[in-house]
Specification:
By secondary structure, this protein is an alpha+beta fold. The strands form two sheets. The protein has a seven-stranded mixed β-sheet with strand order 2-1-5-4-3-8-9, covered by helices on one side. A two-stranded antiparallel ribbon has the order 6-7. The protein has four helices and nine strands; from the N terminus they run βββαβαβαββββα.
Length: about 150
């Protein structure tokens, strides 16, 4: 079961594609976080979604920290980020495999990947928006943009 709106977001530390640790709670008191789980780097729907985030990054920059999370290795995430020009961190939930996705209730055990979970976490660490889409089901980003606007970010 996915983390629900109004609940405390599970904290975590994962390495980004430069193998630098990123801790969710380090953003508390500073800015909200838009946490975007996706199945795999270099896959069609994932690339489309993250490229839309990249292309509309000005709507988030300075107000909301966008973070992408997948079960890919840091090496593949780095190659993908460089190829696509992503301006936000992509974190590796590779090992222990999918542990953070599991804590958010979005890990697909049968396929070994993260489902498309999107969580908006406010500056106190509380989930203000949550949506989970299955693999092959693209997200409508307007829903989380509305949630970001309502948060006053």
């Amino acid at each position: 079961m996915a983390v629900e709106v109004g609940s405390k977001a599970p904290d975590f530390t994962l390495n980004d594609y430069n193998k630098q640790p990123v801790t969710l709670s380090s953003f508390q008191g500073d800015k909200p976080v838009l946490l975007v789980f996706y199945p795999f780097a270099f896959s069609g729907i994932c690339q489309g979604e993250l490229c839309q985030l990249r292309d509309e990054f000005a709507e988030y920059e300075g107000n909301v920290q966008v973070i992408g999370v997948s079960v890919d290795t840091p090496f593949s995430l780095k190659a993908w980020a460089e190829q696509q020009g992503y301006q936000f961190p992509l974190l590796s939930d590779f090992w222990p495999h999918g542990e953070v996705a599991k804590s958010y209730g979005v890990f697909n055990e049968g396929a070994g990947l993260a489902n498309r979970g999107t969580f908006l976490i406010d500056t106190t660490g509380v989930v203000r928006f949550a949506e989970v889409n299955q693999p092959g089901e693209a997200r409508d980003q307007e829903a989380w943009k509305k949630a970001v606007a309502e948060l006053g970010a």
